[in-house]
Amino acid sequence: MKYLIWSILAVPVAILFGQSQTGDEILQKVDRNMFSENKIIVSRMVIHGERGSRTVEVKSWQRGVKEAFSEFLAPAREQGTKMLKLQDMLWTFTPSTDRTILISGHMLRQSMMGSDLSYEDMMEDPHLPNLYAASVAGEESVNGRSCLILLLIAKKEDIVYNSRKVWVDKTRFVLVREELYAKSGKLLKRMDVREVMEVQKRWMAKSIFYKDVLKDGEGTEFLVDSLVLDAVIPDYLFSKAALKK
Predict the structure, then answer these.
(1) CB atoms within 10 A of CB 120
(2) Strand, coil or helix: what is 15?
(3) Residue 183: left (phi > 0), alpha (psi -120 to 50), or beta?
(4) Best CA proximity match to 68, nearest among 105, 102, 38, 34
(5) Is-contact 26 134, C-beta < 8 A?
(6) Strand partners, 204
(7) Which CATH superfamily is domain 2-56+111-226 in?
(8) Which of 43, 68, 109, 127 is surrounded by the fewest CB atoms within 10 Å?
(9) Would you say residue 12 has pLDDT above 50?
(10) 10 Å Cβ neighbour count for 197?
(11) How much helix, strand and coil, in percent to the nearest 5, is found in the chain?
């Protein structure tokens, strides 16, 4: 019911704040700012669990929305673990067992490396306009930045999160806050961007805090150490053979 109320209020709120753009148009600008056909990322996940915190370092190569290869660099016990995404398939390779495993079905909903992110989160299409219809639901300042609030409603039944509430920086068109909801309306996860950076004339998140509200622990920090957009990536990485190299 609360989502219906937000949808009804979206038009008058947009008029009140002088917002001439529709929610879908704003979401398209976010997508154009954030998406790069090819990218190479070196990042760290700081996982704050019930028994303390640990840091995982990973390098990822992404091509389009259907191909991604990741190699874990640290800590020592995770070093050499690799993940490969091809179309709708996801494999992991663990050097300690010398086994390649297909992650599918209910396994996709499991936590990745004990973090607040699931394998399912990795598999989702990053182009939000492909998945959601957006409406303007308000305006708010976040970390000193003027933001528009968008309500996103899934266009299809099989989308991981049925709805999202997102805060969009009005001039940089980067997401700075997000709430993810189940079909029942129950809040599942929160995301807050704590720092942004300018890369090749685009604004990107540099430090992100994730919290799965159904999971114990203090959340997961995702820190980008380096990011190259429109990178040249060799074809051999996007094959199962690369997992054991």
Answers:
(1) 17
(2) helix
(3) alpha
(4) 38
(5) yes
(6) 197
(7) Lipoprotein localisation LolA/LolB/LppX (2.50.20.10)
(8) 109
(9) no
(10) 13
(11) 20, 50, 30
**Domain-by-domain residue ranges, the chain?**
2-56+111-226
Residue 186 has pLDDT above 80, yes or no: yes
Distance CA 149, CA 142 (A): 11
Mean pLDDT, rounded, for 18-46:
91
Locus of tokens 């599918």: 104
What single letter denotes the amino acid at residue 68? Answer: A
Q: Which two tokens stand for residue 34?
A: 């954030």
Q: Please, are residues 69 and 82 in contact by the beta-carbon 8 Å criterion? A: yes
CB distance 58 to 73 below 8 Å: yes
Residue 37 has pLDDT above 90, yes or no: no
Supply the pTM of this predicted model: 0.88
Q: How many CA atoms lie within 13 A of 160 on its CB side?
A: 18
How many Å apart are CA 240 and CA 77, to the nearest integer? 22
**pLDDT per residue as tens digits for the range 208-242:** 999 999 999 999 999 999 999 999 999 999 999 99
pLDDT of residue 122: 85
User: CA end-to-end span of the chain, whole Å?
Assistant: 52
Beta bridge partners of 180: 164, 189
Q: What is the DSSP string of 129-146?
A: HHHEEEEEEEEEEETTEE
Task: Give residue-wise pLDDT tens across range 134-155.
Answer: 999 999 999 999 999 999 999 9
